[in-house]
Amino acid sequence: MSAARPIVDRLPRRLLVVLLILVALLALYPAYGPLLFPAKHGFLLQRLTGIMIVAVMAMSLDLLVGVAGLVSLGHAAFFGLGGYMLALLSPAYEGANLWLALPLTVLGVAAAAVVVGFLSIRTSGIYFIMVTLAFGQMGYYFFNDSRVAGGSDGAYIYVKPTVELFGKTLIDLDDKLTFYYVALGVLVGTYLLLRMLLASPFGRVVRAIGVNEHRVRGLGFNPVLYKLVAFTIGGSLAGLSGFLAATQYGFVNPAMLSWHQSGQVLVMVILGGMGTLFGPALGAFILEFARLGFESITDHYLLLMGGLIIGVVLVLPRGVGGWLLTVTEHRPADPDQEAP
Amino acid sequence: MTTPNTAAAAPTLSEDAAAVVLETRGLTRNFGGLVAVNAVSLRFLSGQTHAVIGPNGAGKSTLVNLLTGHLPVTRGEILFKGRTITNLPAHRVSQLGIGRSYQKTNIFPAFSCFENCRLAAQSRLSTSMRFVRPALAYHTVNEKAQAALEACGLARHRDRAAGTISYGEQRQLEIGMVLATDPQLLVLDEPLAGMGVEESEMLIGLLKRLASRYTVILVEHDMDAVFSLADVLTVMVNGTVLESGPVDMVRASQAVQDAYLGDGEEAY
Fold first, then answer.
1. Which fold would CATH assign to domain B1-97+185-268?
2. pLDDT, tens only, A287-303
3. What's the Rg (C-alpha) of chain B?
4. Are B187 and B64 in contact (CB under 8 A)?
5. With a CB-CB cutoff of 8 Å, which residues 113-132 of chain B face chain A?
6. Chain B hits for A229, Cβ within 8 Å
7. Nearest residue on chain B to A209, judged by CA atoms?
8. Is B140 an interface residue toward A (CB < 8 Å)?
9. For position A163, what pLDDT does the model report?
10. With an 8 Å Cβ cutoff, are B128 and A7 in contact?
11. Domain range list for chain A
12. Which of A28, A118, A187, B145 is the most exposed place for a label (fewest CB within 10 A)?
């Protein structure tokens, strides 16, 4: 547990400006992308959509790891389950109705998160990591070895979910540009939702649990209950992310649930800055772009990825987000200079 | 060594049942073969400051942990205002109005002093499962936190991270957090532990103010503090109550003199 995890109610103004610029860059990408990268625009649009979806998952994991102090190595199980829910809810040759499929998916994943959380939250530290890892792998092998949705081959979602109102199509998820903006909307929306949660009485308790759980109980809160709700919210958001990923790729496979996926998102959280919310989202972009860049240089790109991660962790112990918070913070006068 | 009985030991105090805030009956806690607290029966009366003293290993801290639900009881009973609270978990005990401070400073170092108290005050909302309105918009909670911060003398450090104030101030904050939970009974576990002389004096002043307003159970090593604060004194040795009663009576007790206070001259 790091002691340096202050409550950030309001981001420093300069940081807010930086983040708004980044969101604007994303929002305007479809306008300038074809000009800057004429050959690769379509590919990049698709990559960016995928990264934004993973960033949602990274933020949902940050609620557990960075805020509540629950280091889960099974978070991908909820991501994958979200994808599989969509696959199972989709009729063979037509699109699922989003108004039905999305709430059912989130509720289904939430139910799974309640069960897994209930059984794992009483453990802590390394044991919690082991138990969540075990549950994650159980999910993986369930979809890998059973005949549900294609076993180890995975399953296709031939037609994307339809978003209709009174028979009229509101949003066409098949359109890549439209879907890009849906992903951007979910990314920003999830961030704002989590910000709201963290500022609420609930969020304050969960954050305090991450710092000193023993004291939280002493003050009269039942930490188990708050951790379980946080775990469920985090799991549900990961399910939403998986639902979008399955929609984008039109395909689900057991690897979505595997611990590789969990570990990768955990790296995004750590690299991006635990507990900062925006940091893990940035971590998703940094990691994925680094992969794109390194992949184009060498086949041994994983070596470079490892070097990057080690480098960032050594240089920026609080992650990119923590570093950004420090450099943009406005200090009126150093409070530590006060006479004792 | 199982001869303690408070009723006999405190003849001068009125023990009107209504005035008994907390009571233990044959309270016992074993750690493996060690009996840390052995058949302790005590009554803590409303408005009084009841100090528990004893040498290291006497079972004082274990007693505090049992009273506040931080440790399960092996045998015996704990009654708060006539109702049993034996083996309730710590958060339930706190919700009943038993506020506890810790011997080892136990705060949220990264949070501001205000947030430490605010969180404590927030625990008195009917529930904190509230997800939309910002915590800082709960004005009654803010007011309570501010009052607690002022009561413990830290208003000037309101926005400083609790980890950056001095050790003595952290001890004050520890008490401020307890006050913010609207306790009916304060259980203070060695509030003066590890403090310098000047810091101690300030904190004793604070404890005196609290003693006049609250029912207090005070576990403390500092004899000067105990004698200046306590109405009732219980001496524990090896997990059992050696003597319990009004301070002067216990001070004069030969058994206590022999076992703990020494020959009296250099002890205070």
1. Rossmann fold (3.40.50)
2. 999 999 998 888 888 89
3. 19
4. yes
5. 115, 118-120, 122-125, 128-132
6. 129
7. B108
8. no
9. 79
10. no
11. 13-328
12. A28
Residues A55-74 have pLDDT tens digits of 999 999 999 999 999 999 99
Q: Which chain A residues touch B64 with a CB distance below 8 Å?
A: none
pLDDT of residue B198: 85
What are the C-alpha distances in Å from B126 to residues B97, B122, B130, B142, B147?
14, 9, 10, 15, 20
Nearest to B95 among A205, A212, A220 (CB): A220
Going from N- to C-terminal start, the domains of chain B cover: 1-97+185-268, 106-183
Integer Cα distance of A109 and A301 in angstroms: 34
**To the nearest whole percent, how much of chain A has pLDDT over 70?**
94
Question: What is the SS3 assignment for B34?
Answer: strand
Q: What percent of chain A has pLDDT over 90?
A: 68
Q: Do A221 and B91 touch (CB under 8 A)?
A: yes
Q: What is the ipTM of this complex?
A: 0.87
Nearest to B123 among A196, A221, A229 (CB): A221
pTM assigned to the model: 0.90
Core vs surface per residue B126-147: b (16+ CB within 10 A) or e? eebebeeebbbebeebbebbbb
Q: Which of B89, B115, B122 sits opposite A201 (nearest CB)?
A: B122
Per-residue pLDDT of chain B (268 residues; tens, 9 = 90+): 444 444 444 444 455 666 899 999 999 999 998 999 999 999 999 999 999 998 888 899 999 999 999 999 999 999 999 999 999 999 999 999 999 999 988 999 999 999 999 999 999 999 999 999 999 999 999 999 999 999 999 999 999 999 999 999 999 999 999 999 999 999 999 999 888 888 888 899 999 999 999 999 999 888 888 989 999 999 998 999 988 999 888 888 888 777 766 554 444 4
Q: Which residue in chain B has the smallest CA separation from A229?
A: B129
Nearest residue in B to A334, CA atom: B160
Q: What is the 3-state secondary structure (H, E, C) of chain A?
A: CCCCCCCCCCCCHHHHHHHHHHHHHHHHHHHHHHHHCCCCHHHHHHHHHHHHHHHHHHHHHHHHHHHCCCCCCCCHHHHHHHHHHHHHHCCCCCCCEHHHHHHHHHHHHHHHHHHHHHHHCCCCCHHHHHHHHHHHHHHHHHHHHCCHHHHHHCEECCCCCEEEECCEEEECCCCHHHHHHHHHHHHHHHHHHHHHHHHCHHHHHHHHHHHHHHHHHHCCCCHHHHHHHHHHHHHHHHHHHHHHHHHHHCEECHHHHCHHHHHHHHHHHHHHCCCCCHHHHHHHHHHHHHHHHHHHHCCCHHHHHHHHHHHHHHHCCCHHHHHHHHHHCCCCCCHHHCCC
